Amino acid sequence: MKECAIGIDLGGTNLKGLIIERDGSARHLTKMLTEAERGGARVLENILTMIDTLVRKEGSNGHIIGIGIGTPGFVSEDGVVWGAENLPGWAGTQLYEPIAGRFSLPAVAANDVTVMALAEALFGAGRGVRNLVCYALGTGIGGGIVIDHKLYKGTSGMAGELGHVSVETNGILCNCGQRGCVERYASATGIVFLAKELAAACPDADISPFVKEVRANPDGVTSRMVYGYAAEGDPVACAVNERVCDMLARAIGITLNTLSPDRVVLGGGVLQAGQIIIDTVKKYLPEYCWPMIRERCDIVAAALGEEAGVMGAGAMVFDK
Ligand SMILES: [Zn+2]
């Protein structure tokens, strides 16, 4: 049988696993509950159960060359998880030794969003290019950097924290302790914040249907709603989009001048708004990036769906 790897994607609610080959063809996608509320030891046990299930579906593990895991937080070189505040008891878990002990297979683990970048680079919107940067715009902003087809983790293992590039002096305070992180403006959370801010500041003469709805039901504001109104041309919703994309363009400009990648991939739930975000970012980018660098870089939407994380996790085994 062809060489293959096991990919595991650890989410707050669900644990996903599959078998993947070097060319990205995948099989046996399997899901189970993470059971984060039962603590780190239970989560680890569930990961081992998932691996066992996948090995049994394959019939043997002779052709499996390793196990890749995407996890919230970060992973030290020797396989200890840290960070990951949303999974109680998970920080401090040693991942590699129990897997090697039970299955005699090497494991490799990294941040769950970072591995999505690897999946996009190898099998999705970055297929065929050498250098790529990926932004995942969700509740927060995650990222990943792929250089020469390989995931770049940096000295600390934390490289690719693109959501915490600061884009405004004395800007909004971020959960991370910095001010002006792009995540405060261009994540779903940031977009909702800006929508409420602009709606509150809107003069009576300019109140639009969007402003009316935000003021009537501030707790119901979502990034999807903002972009629904923006698509209809509501002036205040469009102004929110301009501000969001200006901030995002600042962050992307810094990354482009630093790395000069072939491609920037934008993904995550916010990108369901579609081309409007990419077009507006491109409009602002010339203010923040050298033309010679910008002209050689495409900005595109992510191509893989919600399986990107689990595919990227498995792909790390080949990447190593
Ligand atoms: Zn931050």
Compressed to H and E, one letter per element, the order equals EEEHEEEHEHEEEHHHHHEHHEH
Helix content: 25-40%
- Strand percentage: 15-25%
According to DSSP, the number of beta strands is 12
Reported by name, the CATH topology of the largest domain is Nucleotidyltransferase, domain 5
Indicate the radius of gyration in whole angstroms: 21 Å
Hetero ligands? zinc ion
CATH structural architecture of the largest domain: 2-Layer Sandwich
Strand order of the largest sheet: 3-2-1-4-7
First-to-last CA distance: 21 Å
Largest sheet data: 5 strands, mixed
The top level CATH class name of the largest domain: Alpha Beta
Poorly predicted parts: none
Keyword list:
single chain, 320 residues, alpha/beta, Nucleotidyltransferase, domain 5, five-stranded mixed β-sheet, binds zinc ion
How would you explain this protein's 3D organization?
The model has no long low-confidence stretch (mean pLDDT 95). Helix 5 crosses helix 6 (209-216), helix 5 packs across helix 8 and helix 8 (235-259) packs across helix 9 (275-284). Helices cover 39% and strands 20% of the residues. Strand 9 and strand 10 (150-151) form a beta hairpin. The strands form 3 sheets. Strands 3-2-1-4-7 form a 5-stranded mixed sheet. The protein is α/β, with parallel strands linked by helices and 320 residues long. It has 11 helices and 12 strands. It folds into 2 domains: 4-120 and 307-319, Nucleotidyltransferase, domain 5, CATH 3.30.420; 127-301, Nucleotidyltransferase, domain 5 (2-Layer Sandwich), CATH 3.30.420.40. The protein has helices at 40-58, 96-103, 112-123, 183-186, 188-201, 209-216, 223-231, 235-259, 275-284, 291-294, 308-319, and strands spanning 4-10, 14-21, 26-33, 64-71, 74-75, 81-82, 107-111, 132-137, 141-147, 150-151, 263-267, 298-301.
